Amino acid sequence: MSLETPFAELLRDAQNFHTSLQQYVEGKRVDDQNNDSMQSVSKLLLMIEFVFEMLRDVGLAVQHQLYVALKEKNDPRFEHAAGWRKCALSGLQSCRCLCVNALTVDEQYIKWLRCIWLVTHIQELEHHRRRQTGREEMLSEHTEMYRTALAFVFEQLQNLYAAVCTAKMRMQLVKN
Hints:
mainly alpha; two-stranded antiparallel ribbon; two-stranded antiparallel sheet; 7 helices; globular
């Protein structure tokens, strides 16, 4: 499922995304009263956070807990859990789980984990890179990596939202 939104437009437009990302990293406010545009990286990240809060509110607290854990995690590496563990996302037992704080997640979700980690750490990563290199301009490879990660997270959240809505409708139909 793909909903057409200003965020989808931002993610498709590489030049506009680059400009918005540069402003986000520099901490410039592009969402003031004179700018009604939803096309900004800061607003996209805020919307992603709101979606995770909504998931928590509709009973998918583990999704929100995982988001918070990844946001608070300082490094993108994940340790393997010893033995069989229950995957927090699928609810299935797995001997290939990764640890994310107190949660364990099957390694089949590694792309999801890494992309969420990456998009929640863009500013820190870019500030660190600038300190190390002295270069203010963002590398096009980095911009594309962030854009791809945000597009993946955005798409997966749309799919999850569609699945939740479908399940809710089915439950309602069964009740009637």
